[in-house]
Amino acid sequence: MRWRRGAAVIISKKARDVPQAKAMDYVGGYALALDMTDREIQATAKVIIIICSVN
Question: Whole domain around residue 39: which residue ranges?
Fold first, then answer.
């Protein structure tokens, strides 16, 4: 199992092409994020996806 941590930004409302000066108006909060990946399951899933794509 591999993991990594990071920061997440919570977007509070729909947005598109927001100018940098207004960006903070769309931030609803912050959170700590933890990404945990089981590499064995991930490798198996990639093989299944490739096989299904070929058919």
Answer: 2-53
